[in-house]
Design brief:
The chain is an alpha/beta fold. The chain has ten helices and eight strands. It has one domain: Glycosidases (TIM Barrel), CATH 3.20.20. About 45% of the residues lie in helices and about 15% in strands.
């Protein structure tokens, strides 16, 4: 049976209505329970020289959460300044990092280093300069021995996830993760649940890499994990791609442009809004999205 659990109409209207402008999507929350519109910012060097430009773009697109990669070579003063400006514009900044090897227990020191950096940063940052969450991107299926040593890698991945969740609780920050949309097709080693539902139980929320270039395509690959989120009371965000990719034309909005993407994202919210687990959209990534908007405006 499909787990849709439709909200009462007045809550659905209050929480899920969005507006889009031509050339660039603008999601306008209408209540405290409004949906998230997030984006990955991988090139952290941009906050040094172009922080205001980044925030202006994101504000124009209606973004209210930025996943900002941690680059420890960048002085913390730049993070403080950027987050302070973002906070003033009503945008949350979450600390982002990850690597496929971070699923391995032999690489746990990498997790510790990141989490310790975040903890120290939070202790020394002002109220309006603090991160509002932690966001990890760990993709062990990219490891060369994923297919031949999958159960061992998954077990190690589970152990590292539990470690991160425990440390995040000490830091007093919610922790979320990027997940592939197909993770429900894999069982945990003991066979008791899907790997996606196990991950949902650990994290505060997840962002699916549900990369397709139509609203129905995104929704169709995301709906199984949306259903798992309903059953577990967890939040699921749907991610979309804007960069050029060699994985096929159906993956990214790169070929279709910003206006088409805006229309499809509006349809996507309508398709997914019946799921109480649905938390909104995440766009990958800043540079790709900015290029998409600029090229669309030039045409």
């Amino acid at each position: 049976m499909k787990l849709t659990l439709i909200r009462p109409l007045y809550l659905l209207i209050a929480a899920m209505i969005i507006s889009f402008t031509s050339g660039g999507a603008s999601l306008t929350p209408v209540s405290a329970a409004a949906t998230q519109k997030a984006s990955w910012l991988w090139d952290t060097s941009l906050i040094k020289q172009s922080g205001s430009t980044v925030l202006t773009f994101y504000k124009n697109q209606g973004v209210n959460v930025i996943y900002l990669q941690i680059n420890r070579k960048i002085n913390v003063s730049y993070y403080k300044n950027f987050i302070r400006q973002a906070t003033a514009q009503g945008i949350e900044v979450h600390a982002l990092d990850g690597h496929s090897t971070w699923a391995l227990t032999s690489q746990r020191t990498q997790l510790t280093t990141l989490l310790k950096w975040i903890e120290n940063y939070q202790l020394n940052a002002g109220v309006n300069e603090k991160f509002k969450g932690i966001h990890v991107d760990i993709e062990p299926y990219l490891l060369p021995d994923w297919n031949t040593n999958q159960k061992s890698i998954i077990s190690q991945w589970q152990s590292n996830v539990q470690y991160m969740v425990q440390r995040a609780a000490v830091i007093k920050l919610p922790i979320a993760a990027d997940l592939p949309f197909w993770l429900h097709t894999i069982k945990v080693p003991d066979g008791t649940s899907t790997l996606s539902s196990w991950m949902l139980k650990q994290y505060n929320s997840v962002t699916l890499m549900s990369y397709r270039d139509t609203s129905t395509g995104i929704f169709n690959v995301a709906k199984t994990i949306l259903e798992e989120g309903v059953a577990l009371g967890k939040t699921v965000h749907t991610g979309v791609e804007t960069n050029n990719t060699s994985e096929g034309d159906v993956i990214s909005f790169y070929e279709e442009g910003a206006s088409f993407m805006n229309q499809e994202l509006e349809k996507l919210v309508q398709l997914a809004s019946g799921y109480t687990s649905y938390g909104g959209i995440a766009v990958h990534d800043y540079l790709g999205w900015k290029s998409l908007v600029e090229s669309s405006s030039a045409n």
